[in-house]
């Protein structure tokens, strides 16, 4: 539930009273946790249990969670839902369902339930849920449905941002034509105001969509604007902004401006397919002939491989790997020891983890590269999920993105409240990756999404697998 609330709050506050009950900033929770007098604690807990105020019972749920008494927290949460069936917790439960659901038809039913139960209650704001329903229709060839739910948003300030957020999600869904309509709506709402705090992100989204739709002349000024500013006020890194700007230069045949950036990205293993395809033409445009081109490419590739090998070697470790026992999406039990003498790559992730999802296209490239190598195995371990239907969520997401991953479910033990595999590998955050050699030893571990380009990522993966394979 917390996961949904944090994200929804970034879009629009769902309920003021609900927010007052959450987080370390709640003075009532802080005071209760800090109590030392056992009699006072018991009296306070008894009073909270008997209170007719939902906020009091929610405070008790949060107190038990803060004290790491998971079972009591869960029991109190169940009591909360029974005592206040149309209260804030019930609202948030449906809202979280809407956030997690990927099937648009199911989400429409969820939204109708939300409206029927809470639509007339002024305490609740349905704008965030309307947005999440809208984006489930992206990529489904139902633009009218996307617009239908976005038009249910009542707060005009949020509406401007929501259209841009939906346009951003349209890029991921490859729904470029609709995405263009959505971001144009955002710009129309601004009425020429270029001082809006979201302007850099709006410009970035617009430039991505114009490029995808082949409107290079119109989109180029927006890509150049945020590249020249070296803006950090966007949802992606400056390296990605640079890549978009460079792709525009190449498409517009601005080779003399593009060539230094093209060489830089190729040498770093971060060049896009377009840059690699046009690099020779740019070289000729700058140098007047092909002379020296082959030698340049050989040098750049050699330097990249050597640099990555040196960097990877410094990160080598040699510790025993935890022999987990997990079930895959089909219920089959899988153990690490099943893969003795093979190199195993573990990728810990969750459906709510944006950096995990951002890393998957490159991970799919790695899986494709080694799909015929019987001595290399990739296992994607879904962990730290709080939803009751974690297996369905994971399976639906992998299927929707057409990834060919072998997914294992590291579900939380109902008794210990621990994710066994994550705990066994001392996972501090996700995404976390581990490369394990044939003897069952961890040779490399990484935390977070790679900032390297696709070529550099694959070179790094090759180097780590090679070292693990040889047991160096």
Structure in a nutshell:
This protein is of the alpha+beta class. It has helices spanning 2-11, 16-20, 27-34, 38-50, 54-66, 70-83, 88-100, 104-118, 127-136, 143-150, 156-172, 176-190, 199-212, 216-229, 238-251, 255-268, 273-287, 293-314, 354-369, 390-401, 420-424, 454-470; strands spanning 319-320, 325-328, 333-335, 343-349, 376-383, 407-410, 432-436, 441-447.
Helix % is 55-70%
Q: Please state the oligomeric state of the protein chains shown.
A: single chain
- Could you name the ranges where pLDDT drops below 50 across 5 or more consecutive residues? 1-24
Q: How do the strands line up in the largest sheet? A: 1-8-7-4-5-6-2-3
What is the N-to-C succession of helices and strands? HHHHHHHHHHHHHHHHHHEEEEHEHEHEEH
Biggest β-sheet description = 8 strands, mixed
Separation of the first and last Cα atoms:
45 Å
**Gross morphology:** globular
Rg over CA atoms, rounded to whole Å, is 26 Å
The percent range for strand residues is 5-15%
- Mean pLDDT across all amino acids: 90
Tally of helical runs: 22
What is the β-strand count? 8
Helix/strand structural class: alpha+beta
């Amino acid at each position: 539930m917390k996961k949904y609330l944090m994200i929804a709050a970034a879009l629009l506050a769902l309920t003021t009273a609900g927010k007052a009950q959450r987080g370390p900033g709640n003075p009532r929770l802080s005071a209760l946790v800090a109590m030392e007098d056992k009699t006072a604690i018991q009296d306070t807990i008894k009073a909270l249990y008997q209170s007719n105020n939902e906020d009091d019972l929610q405070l008790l749920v949060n107190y038990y969670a803060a004290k790491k008494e998971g079972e009591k927290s869960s029991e109190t949460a169940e009591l909360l839902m029974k005592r206040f069936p149309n209260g804030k917790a019930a609202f948030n439960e449906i809202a979280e369902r809407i956030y997690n659901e990927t099937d648009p038809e199911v989400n429409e039913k969820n939204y109708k339930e939300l409206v029927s139960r809470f639509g007339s209650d002024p305490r609740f704001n349905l704008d965030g849920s309307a947005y999440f329903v809208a984006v489930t229709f992206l990529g489904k060839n139902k633009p009218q449905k996307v617009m239908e739910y976005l038009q249910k948003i009542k707060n005009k300030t949020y509406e401007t941002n929501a259209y841009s957020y939906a346009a951003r999600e349209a890029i991921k869904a490859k729904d470029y034509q609709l995405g263009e309509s959505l971001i144009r709506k955002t710009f129309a709402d601004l009425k020429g105001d270029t001082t809006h705090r979201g302007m850099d992100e709006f410009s970035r989204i617009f430039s991505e969509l114009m490029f995808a739709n082949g409107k290079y002349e119109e989109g180029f000024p927006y890509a150049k604007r945020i590249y020249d500013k070296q803006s950090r006020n966007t949802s992606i890194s400056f390296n990605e902004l640079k890549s978009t700007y460079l792709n525009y230069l190449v498409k517009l045949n601005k080779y003399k401006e593009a060539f230094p950036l093209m060489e830089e990205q190729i040498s770093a293993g971060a060049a896009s397919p377009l840059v690699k395809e046009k690099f020779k033409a740019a070289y000729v445009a700058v140098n007047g002939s092909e002379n020296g081109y082959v030698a340049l490419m050989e040098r750049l590739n050699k330097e990249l491989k050597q640099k990555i090998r040196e960097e990877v070697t410094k990160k080598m470790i040699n510790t025993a790997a935890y022999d987990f026992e997990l079930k895959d999406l089909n219920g089959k039990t899988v153990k690490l020891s099943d893969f003795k003498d093979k190199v195993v790559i573990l990728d810990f992730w969750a459906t709510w983890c944006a950096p995990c999802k951002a890393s998957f296209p490159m991970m799919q490239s790695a899986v494709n590269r080694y799909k015929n190598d019987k001595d290399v195995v990739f296992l994607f371990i879904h962990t730290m999920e709080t939803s009751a239907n974690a297996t369905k969520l994971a399976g639906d997401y992998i299927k929707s993105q057409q990834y060919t991953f072998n997914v294992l479910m590291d579900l939380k033990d109902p008794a210990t409240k621990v994710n066994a595999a994550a705990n066994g590998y001392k996972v501090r955050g996700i995404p976390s990756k581990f490369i394990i050699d044939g003897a069952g030893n961890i040779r490399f571990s990484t935390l977070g999404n790679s900032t390297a380009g696709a070529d550099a990522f694959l070179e790094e993966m090759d180097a780590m697998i090679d070292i693990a394979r040889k047991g160096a």
